[in-house]
């Protein structure tokens, strides 16, 4: 037993000075009697610091399957910018809509800031943390599109749009890497006709979305080590 | 991240500026103008006048949807406000709903409202020969039917203004959105049966007369069909058939078939987020609408 004594940490050295003097009396009785006799050697602070928490992958690349129905491709990339609560999203979407006599081609860019309430999923995974579970977000979109008259291939009209959305979502992480993220929200949508024929327009919108994606990159905690 | 934040703030500022400009210039609205005194609030309209006085302006008559049994002229307020701010006189109407508005009452009311608007062209500063009609869903049906059935005796309005003014129930163009153009394929649905008062076996002549496609003939006013490709309430085949019939008759018809759009759930601008709205309010539908109105009615 005496041989084990030097391996024990020196609790007295690391405890705050404000602790009551009677604290040693509350220490477990199983401690070897020789322990208090070991000289208190100041240990490096790092030896007692908790290891950086594991917040899961720092990046996510997502695709919106709902956009396919509208002949659109919508992708976004997300980064955990301040672990474990804050992430930022940048997205781009191309939509080639219209049919029969018209053709619509539009592009939209989006940025979004997310706050993760719990930063963990319902089932704790070794790397389950950070960008999982419930979140709230603010999203801003801006884009434009052109409507072409199909017989003449002339631009019939164009529009520039902006939207701001407040969103509530939930990300389910599968195996710590795959993600499914439904979200709902509401916001304002603004539409401007660059030709000036149509007055600008602002309306409320209730919205819902869904992304499927893959989370990657070294976990935030691992990267910090 | 700072760059992203700057882009976001810039976009938000632009949007806010747009919203502010929207709020600055509002049309004058004449609420609850009666076009047929016999039926009270059921036959009234809200007239949206452009902010600046003028005469001879183009006008749009807007007909709300709701399966002929629900809805109110307020549903078309966003459309009318935007059109009025763009220089068009716009009138959004109430019409009698089922059961009071069963065939042919709702059709007669819509025609009566059109005649009323034409008869009061000077009062509202509009050009009676530059009036278009639009509507969505059941309103799309009524808009389409009014556009193609001028002079059909069974559907003619019987209100006072129609009997005394001498104005025809004629439009210069029509924009039916997600409209029913042929009743028989939808005879299984309760709203259609309630509106027409029975099945095709019970009232076959009503199914014919209430179907715009049944009236298609050469010389009809230009028509812009707007319909979502994924509409489950009113299948897009309705618009496809109407388009083919109008073209076959040699009429000026265009068709914006909106990929993925449904009756009330629409893809947002980035298509990632879907919104609760009419397909006719989508960005591409607005673009097609204003281009069509300028081409058929001329600029305000």
List descriptors.
heterodimer, A: 225 residues, mainly beta, 50% strand, elongated, disordered N terminus, B: alpha/beta, 8-stranded mixed sheet, 35% helix
Concise summary:
The complex is a heterodimer of chains A (225) and B (300). With 225 residues, chain A is mainly beta.
Q: Provide the helix percentage of chain B.
A: 25-40%
Mean pLDDT of chain A: 78
Computed structural class of chain A: mainly beta
Query: How many helices of chain B?
Result: 10
Describe this structure in words.
The complex is a heterodimer of chains A (225) and B (300). By secondary structure, chain A is mainly beta. Helices cover 6% and strands 50% of the residues of chain A. Chain A has helices at 11-14, 66-69, 220-224, and strands spanning 59-63, 72-82, 86-97, 102-116, 133-149, 154-174, 178-192, 201-216. In chain A, a hairpin with a 3-residue loop joins strand 6 and strand 7. The two termini of chain A are 35 Å apart. Chain B contains ten helices and ten strands. At the A-B interface, helix 2, strand 2, strand 3, strand 4 and strand 5 of A face helix 1, helix 2, strand 8, strand 10 and helix 10 of B. Strand 8 (201-216) of chain A pairs antiparallel with strand 10 of chain B.
SSE diagram, text form:
The complex is a heterodimer of chains A (225) and B (300).
Chain A: H1 11-14, E1 59-63, H2 66-69, E2 72-82, E3 86-97, E4 102-116, E5 133-149, E6 154-174, E7 178-192, E8 201-216, H3 220-224
Antiparallel strand pairs in A: 1-2, 1-8, 2-3, 3-4, 4-5, 5-6, 6-7, 7-8
Chain B: H1 2-24, E1 28-34, E2 44-49, E3 57-63, H2 77-85, E4 89-93, H3 105-119, H4 121-124, E5 126-136, H5 138-148, H6 160-164, E6 173-177, H7 190-196, H8 204-209, E7 223-228, H9 237-248, E8 253-258, E9 265-267, E10 273-276, H10 283-296
Parallel strand pairs in B: 3-4, 3-5, 5-6, 6-7, 7-8
Antiparallel strand pairs in B: 1-2, 2-4, 9-10
């Amino acid at each position: 037993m005496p041989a084990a004594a030097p391996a024990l940490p020196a609790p007295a050295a690391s405890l705050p000075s404000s602790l009551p003097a009677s604290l040693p009396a509350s220490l477990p009785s199983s401690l070897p009697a020789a322990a208090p006799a070991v000289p208190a050697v100041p240990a490096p602070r790092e030896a007692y610091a908790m290891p950086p928490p594991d917040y899961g992958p720092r990046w996510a690349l997502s695709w919106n399957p709902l956009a396919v129905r509208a002949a659109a491709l919508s992708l976004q990339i997300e980064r955990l910018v301040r672990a474990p609560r804050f992430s930022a999203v940048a997205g781009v979407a191309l939509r080639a809509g219209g049919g029969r006599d018209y053709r619509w081609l539009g592009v939209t860019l989006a940025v979004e800031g997310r706050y993760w309430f719990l930063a963990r999923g319902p089932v704790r995974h070794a790397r389950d943390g950070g960008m999982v579970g419930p979140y709230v977000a603010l999203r801003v979109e801006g884009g434009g599109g052109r409507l072409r008259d199909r017989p003449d291939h002339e631009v019939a009209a164009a529009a520039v749009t902006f939207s701001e959305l407040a969103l509530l979502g939930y990300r389910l992480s599968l195996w710590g890497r795959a993600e499914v993220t439904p979200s709902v929200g509401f916001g304002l949508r603004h539409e401007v006709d660059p030709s000036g024929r149509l007055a600008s327009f602002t309306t409320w919108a209730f919205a819902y979305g869904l992304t499927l994606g893959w989370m990657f990159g070294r976990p935030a905690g691992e990267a910090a080590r | 991240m700072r760059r992203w934040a700057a882009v976001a703030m810039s976009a938000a500022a632009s949007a806010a500026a747009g919203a502010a400009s929207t709020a600055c210039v509002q049309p004058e609205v004449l609420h609850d103008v009666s076009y047929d005194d016999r039926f009270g609030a059921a036959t009234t309209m809200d007239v949206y006048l452009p902010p600046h006085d003028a005469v001879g302006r183009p006008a749009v008559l807007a007909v709300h949807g709701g399966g002929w049994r629900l809805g109110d002229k307020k549903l078309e307020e966003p459309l009318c406000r935007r059109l009025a701010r763009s220089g068009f006189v716009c009138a959004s109407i109430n019409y009698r709903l089922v059961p009071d508005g069963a065939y042919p009452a709702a059709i007669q009311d819509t025609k009566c409202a059109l005649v009323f608007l034409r008869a009061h062209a000077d009062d509202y500063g509009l050009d009676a020969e530059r009036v278009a009609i639009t509507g969505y869903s059941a309103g799309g049906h009524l808009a389409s039917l009014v556009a193609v059935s001028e002079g059909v005796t069974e559907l003619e309005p019987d209100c006072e203004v129609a009997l005394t003014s001498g104005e025809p129930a004629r439009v210069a163009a029509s924009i039916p959105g997600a409209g029913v153009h042929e009743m028989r394929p939808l005879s299984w649905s309760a709203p259609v049966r309630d509106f027409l008062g029975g099945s095709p076996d019970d009232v076959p002549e009503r199914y014919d007369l209430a179907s715009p496609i049944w009236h298609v003939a050469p010389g009809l006013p230009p028509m812009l069909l707007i319909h979502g490709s994924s509409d489950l309430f009113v299948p897009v085949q309705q618009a496809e058939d109407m388009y083919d019939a109008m073209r076959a008759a040699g009429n000026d018809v265009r068709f914006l078939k909106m990929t993925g759009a449904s009756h009330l759930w629409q893809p947002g601008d980035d298509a990632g987020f879907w919104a609760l709205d009419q397909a006719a309010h989508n960005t591409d539908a607005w673009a097609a609408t204003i281009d069509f109105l300028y081409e058929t009615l001329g600029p305000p």
